[in-house]
Design a protein that fits this description.
Shape: elongated
Order of helices and strands: HHHHHEEEHHHHHHEEE
Strand order of the largest sheet: 1-2-3
Strand content: 5-15%
Number of strands: 6
Helix content: 40-55%
Oligomer: single chain
Radius of gyration: 35 Å
């Protein structure tokens, strides 16, 4: 009877492999050859996954320790189940085979290869399910490494907890740096757009609404950008007396020229504010979502949200707190 344990030798070394081989020789003397052949098949199937998830003897010993054995075998079970689903195996038969693999694991525990687990290894009882849209949090990369795909970044299952935490932390820092970099680029574009809008507005003349049939003396529209910008600057978003404000500005309808001038008109929106808010929070970690939602530049109660004391600027937000009407939170710029 041949025991193909080359993959075990490559991963876990001579000493571990020799001990495993001697155990199987001793065990094989107690059972008939046909049964032994099946048992060896289950053992090899178990180790084919173990060497992928725990590629060295140190990782294997930790994973199969009393404390971590249940969790480690649960990972092995899930990976075997994924493989069975991918290959379209009968899931009922798979669970029968898994139970036999657990038997071989228990054999290695009895012979002292692995520590006895604190919790009995899971042997799920398969039940037919009509839901075919099953998902998993474990994937393979282009190097055939098994990765956990549910975390902030993809983590190889062979990583220890401390290694995984370090990788996640590095990923978060890199993501923050990238977001800040992109926000800085967008901020520059917003500033350039605003400066251009103000420059044109300062050169323009306001078009005033006339309640008569006389021709308005202030030309406006695509050929008179400065006047259009100046009028919008004085009355942004909508006009209190004019229903079709875009028509009043001379930019209603669709055309390449009108689309350009509409794009050049500066106004506050999510696209202009988000980069600024991200940079604001990055520079001032004390600013929270609640603080920002409560902040107002000015309100009807004369509470000013941005003011200067000496040479420094401050932002002030008012939040309702238990026992008091408002609680001030100041942030220095």
């Amino acid at each position: 009877m041949n025991l193909n344990i080359s993959i075990i030798y490559d991963a876990y070394g001579k000493e571990f492999t020799h001990k495993l081989h001697q155990i199987m020789i001793t065990y094989g003397k107690k059972i008939i050859s046909t049964t032994l052949s099946k048992k060896i098949g289950y053992l090899v199937s178990l180790f084919r996954v173990l060497v992928l998830v725990y590629p060295n003897i140190k990782d294997l010993q930790r994973a199969m320790s009393s404390e971590y054995a249940f969790e480690s075998m649960l990972i092995i079970y899930n990976l075997c189940l994924i493989d069975a689903k991918i290959k379209n195996y009968n899931i009922g038969h798979f669970h029968g085979r898994w139970s036999c693999m657990v038997d071989m694991y228990s054999l290695l525990v009895n012979y002292g290869i692995f520590q006895e687990p604190l919790t009995e290894i899971l042997r799920p009882i398969y039940k037919n399910c009509t839901n075919k849209n099953t998902t998993t949090n474990v994937i393979k990369n282009n190097k055939q490494q098994l990765l956990h795909n549910k975390l902030v970044t993809q983590i190889p299952l062979s990583y220890t907890d401390s290694e995984a935490k370090e990788l996640i932390f590095i990923k978060i820092i890199n993501e923050i740096d990238h977001i800040v970099y992109c926000s800085e680029l967008l901020r520059k574009k917003v500033n350039e757009k605003y400066d251009y809008f103000i420059e044109c507005s300062n050169k323009g003349t306001i078009k005033v609404n006339q309640n008569n049939n006389l021709r308005n003396p202030v030309p406006i529209g695509t050929l008179n950008k400065n006047n259009t910008f100046r009028t919008y600057y004085e009355t942004p978003f909508k006009h209190k007396d004019i229903k079709n404000y875009l028509n009043f500005l001379g930019i209603s309808g669709l055309s390449k020229e009108k689309d350009i001038i509409k794009e050049e008109i500066f106004y506050s929106s999510y696209n202009t504010l988000y980069p600024l808010l991200i940079l604001l929070i990055n520079q001032h970690p004390a600013i929270t979502e609640s603080w920002l939602l409560s902040w107002k530049l000015y309100d009807n109660k004369s509470n000013v949200g941005l003011f200067k004391i000496g040479e420094s600027w401050y932002s002030k937000s008012f939040k309702k707190r238990k026992g008091v009407n408002h609680a001030e939170q100041l942030i220095k710029w």
